[in-house]
Amino acid sequence: MKIDLFGIKFDNLTMEEAVERIKGFVVLPYSEFVVRAQKNEEFRSILNQADFCLCESRGLWLMAKLLGKKLNQEINGVELIYKISQKSRQFGGQAPVKSQKLFLFGGTENVVKKTAEILGECVVGAENGYRDFDEIIEKINQVQPDVLLVGLGSPKQEKFIAENLSKMPSVKLAIGVGGAFDFISGRVKRAPKFTQKIYLEWLWRLIVQPQRINRIFKGVGGLICLTLGNMLNLKSKK
Q1: Which residues of 183-202 are buried (b: 16+ CB within 10 A; e: fewer)?
Q2: Which whole number is the average pLDDT over 225-233?
Q3: Most confident of 30-44, 66-80, 124-138, 188-202
Q4: Cα angle vertex 233, ends 199, 55, to 5°?
Q5: Fewest Cβ atoms nearer than 10 Å: which of 28, 104, 108, 130?
Q6: Closest CA to 178 of 26, 45, 39, 48
Q7: pLDDT value for 88
Q8: What is 93-188's CATH number?
Q9: Where in the chain are the domains?
Q10: pTM summary value
């Protein structure tokens, strides 16, 4: 079931459903995505052309609720990566639930290598985000992963997947994961759980990464403005 929110069509899935169902090109929009998509028609089109579009932001989940468009759950990108990678590992001596090979593309050399080390043997390739695209595609085709995780930042990562997924026939699932490698590698600390629960993860990001102040306020402030505008429009139509 798709839910149209600010012109972007979201798949209304829980984390468990997402892990089982997602395939093809997957996008994980958060507030900054939504605000950018209002003015960037090409970017909005790429998001809507994806095979699966999952709400990655608790703030976005809350704004949807205020508009009467209930999303079952926000899908955190870091947690999704962990769950996907776990499906290719052994549990208690048993065979893997599902054998998958992961390729990581994005971030700095140290970050992507550390991420690969943490995710373990399921990772068959890891390259920094400063490599030539043609070289990366060639390398991906050499090792033939099932899953491609791209952390180039938005909208670069979404454009890369949209334009090149067909050139990588072994890849059954490609996800734009933004800064997830930074969190998994430990370069950036994730917000404490209580902060996440009260919808203030954005404030934590601002504290630990003050250089993101413009991006954070454009995303959060822009999303609030969009929500208020939609609420006023709904009220005027009654």
Answers
A1: bbbeeeebbeeebeeeebbb
A2: 82
A3: 124-138
A4: 35
A5: 130
A6: 26
A7: 52
A8: 3.40.50.2300
A9: 1-75+191-238, 93-188
A10: 0.87
